User: Fold this.
Amino acid sequence: MSIRRMCSVLGLARSSYYTKCKPKQQKPALRWLGRKLRALHKEHREALGTRGLSKELRKEGIFIGRYRMRTLIKTFGLHRRRPRYAHYRRATKPAIVAPNILDRRFNPSRPDTLWAGDITYIRVGNGWLYLAVVMDLFSRRIVGWACSRTADAELSAKALRLAVSLRRPMPELLFHSDQGCQYTADRFVACLAESRIVQSMSRRGNCWDNAVVERYFRTLKHDWMPENGYQNHFEAEKDVMGFISHYNHRRCHSASNHLPPALFEEQAA
Assistant:
């Protein structure tokens, strides 16, 4: 059927048909903004939504509202990765090794006064890579880290020793963790005592007592890591180290005035 005949049957003017078929040319400013948004979308591995992209552009002096950003995301076809949530049961049995001194006070007024740590597992081929981190709760900066193929006390102690050597904190610093065997081991407790660090522990099975570090691991796994894990340990360690740098120097945090941890520390100094 010809276009003339089809338009006649549908009662549509041919000029309207050709107008719809003609692709719309985007304005130069919109094309530039599209390239900028795609670059940010790729840099953050499709993890940022309307708020996140707006904050990233605001750092460069480009102010776009949340609802306008939503329209732009649809226009440029930028699909955000959807997180998968794990559900945990609550428990209130107190810690045996150390009491819960932190008590969810996650926002200290000075750096290197409250640290928190934890260990997570990362899929590597048919096995696992274990990552231990130490976070300064003042800025949410990762100040110590270590990777290993075994989740033992040496892994957690290695991350703590790195944090102490990099930050050189004052005595009576508080270190908080869960009740994992890596943190209750004599080797790790001795490492704390050597640096005159006070130990605090979550209540048994209560992940909310260490929510900030748990949130960091959620960001790593759902916003950064490939969904099917890594092919080998070298690839995994390299990418995890890249995320630590990205998290400390590029990713904005609402707890630090929507600034990356490193920049927040500089401005607070």
About this structure: The beta strands are 114-124, 127-136, 141-148, 174-177, 198-201.
